[in-house]
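Honest question from a wet-lab person: if I give you the sequences of every part of a complex, can you actually get the arrangement of the whole thing, not just the pieces? Trying it with mine:
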Amino acid sequence: AQSVTQLGSHVSVSEGALVLLRCNYSSSVPPYLFWYVQYPNQGLQLLLKYTTGATLVKGINGFEAEFKKSETSFHLTKPSAHMSDAAEYFCAVRNNFNKFYFGSGTKLNVKP
Amino acid sequence: GAGVSQSPSNKVTEKGKDVELRCDPISGHTALYWYRQSLGQGLEFLIYFQGNSAPDKSGLPSDRFSAERTGGSVSTLTIQRTQQEDSAVYLCASSSRQGHTEAFFGQGTRLTVV
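Yes, you can. This is the full assembly:
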């Protein structure tokens, strides 16, 4: 069975600082990887995804993530945090049977 | 439709009553998922449909929970004899069959059992 681990249920950064949200997955086959963002009282919105090809993936709002097969990681980064980035972020893996596995989420707090 | 639609958006029910939550996926999406998100918690998988069949219903918490999907489209999640611990946001998502595509989420139904 596959699983997704997000290190840190809460991350706090200052506005303008680097954002790094960690995601590790377990998978016996090359996975499809996703990051979603959830703003308060809203559904989940896709930030970015990795399927094949370039391992550095760029998404919306200046976020990017790098697929590292050797480390089974797909960490999410943003060079400079903005107050509007405060939200909960979920990493997900989709397996070959179309099932999505989600991490437990990381709440990002951005301090002024 | 343009996106995944869930209804109602909010539901308050008395303990012991039955509730039905509806999900209308994106047209043409064969896969449909139900998740539960309790206050301050992550996403709890409930059930997955491929077409009208449910190859994975391992996440349904008890036999009070059931779900069906008809015509490969609309899905209904039914909770019988609701309990206070059922209070949560129930999220529905759909995706196409192609493995590289993402799941599209609805806005959720906030269920409160009083």
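Two things worth pointing out. Chain B has no helices and eleven strands. The mean pLDDT of chain B is 92.
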